[in-house]
TrEMBL record:
Xref: Pfam families: DUF2390 (PF09523)
The protein, known as: TIGR02444 family protein
Origin superkingdom: Bacteria
Protein source organism: Devosia nitrariae
InterPro entries: CHP02444
Amino acid sequence: MDAAETGENLWRFAVTVYAQSAVAEECLAAQRRHGCDVCVLLAAAFAAAEGRLPDARTLAAWDAAVERWRSDVVKPLRTARDALKSLDVAGAAELRRAVLGDELQAERIEFKLLAEAATRWPAPYELDLGTEARVAATMRAVTAYYNGDPVDLPILMEAVTAR
């Protein structure tokens, strides 16, 4: 599978999983509390669902592949969108919706950057842990990568394994 196809598959996976009940809230909590990049988190979940077990080295490579894009583009758009929430100014709500669309497009590009890093994607894991155990281990690896402590993300894990 080439990077473009991987990027589209990753985007569809992320949109489908993120739309499931309470997944967005859990992912955003992981972002706020543990510093996780939600796109990297979802890419890792995608890899786990595909039979792969990303390790810290792989996660570091993925994070490095999107670091500048995230800091220079995604975060400023998110900051602007968040600021527009609390402003009681004519047109702010419409602008917030437009910025949200731009933020989603920026995240879609981030998934493409992650797909381009596919040469650093891990090979299928040799031991058959089962999807649930592999996804759980991957979610703990991602949170440990970002904050040093492995954290369970049961809602995301359930959404990934139920698909």
